[in-house]
Specification:
The protein is mainly alpha-helical. The protein has ten helices and no strands. Helix 4 packs parallel to helix 6. It is globular and about 50 Å long.
Length: 217
């Protein structure tokens, strides 16, 4: 019997044969950006990572220029800018975060449910990670609203549950945080995103360790 990942990948490739040339190109572009982001975010460090994020950001910007009405392109440019902000830190981080917010908000205008509500989840994360006024636009209430909307669209997804669990941990709501972290671990593995899922699960386990320490007092 073939491994499930092989079967699913074969099914995806077979499906792309029947897609229009434009749809097939869009699917290929999405997968390329997703997989490269995971490599840059999880396997690179220091200047090498910063340079790779800059290169990937330019690639995503070109995608948006080519397809300005494509919500998926805006979502991924927003994700790249937000993680780039986290990697760079310092004064440039807020500018990158604002750029990320702009593209994620544009994605919500175009197609709110795109990529399983990823724009809601990523934007919600920005709102609780970025400092509040007068330094930034952070807003915990807005973050909660956006993250819960992401969960309405994708209640069993690894990312929305992890982000909401992390938010709840920051709010010291440890029992609720633990429930969503456990749900994140129970999410189905995405066949085309093995590196991202494996690393996200490590992050979930690390979060659960912190939650359990707090619950034990």
């Amino acid at each position: 019997m073939k491994p499930m990942t092989v079967i699913l990948t074969s099914m995806t490739l077979a499906l792309m044969v029947y897609l229009s040339p434009v749809a097939a190109e869009e699917a290929s572009q999405l997968l390329t950006v997703q997989q490269r982001w995971a490599e840059v975010n999880y396997t690179l460090e220091g200047d090498e990572q910063l340079n790779a994020f800059e290169e990937l950001s330019k690639q995503a910007e070109n995608w948006v220029k080519q397809e300005p009405e494509n919500a998926e392109a805006h979502i991924w440019l927003g994700i790249i800018k937000s993680t780039q902000a986290g990697a760079e830190g310092g004064l440039s981080a807020l500018g990158l975060a604002k750029e990320a917010r702009k593209h994620l908000e544009r994605a919500l205008q175009l197609e709110p449910d795109a990529l399983g509500g990823s724009a809601y989840a990523s934007l919600g994360t920005l709102y609780y990670k970025v400092p509040g006024w007068p330094f930034g636009f952070g807003d915990d209430d807005k973050a909660s609203e956006l993250l819960q909307q992401a969960l309405k669209i994708n209640p069993d997804g690894i990312d929305p549950n992890y982000f909401y669990a992390d938010y709840l941990f920051e709010q010291e709501q440890y029992q609720k945080a633990k429930a969503h972290a456990q749900r994140a671990l129970n999410a189905e593995v995405r066949a085309q995103r093995p590196l991202a899922d494996a690393e996200r699960r490590k992050e979930v386990h690390a979060l659960l360790d912190k939650i359990n320490r707090e619950l034990k007092g």
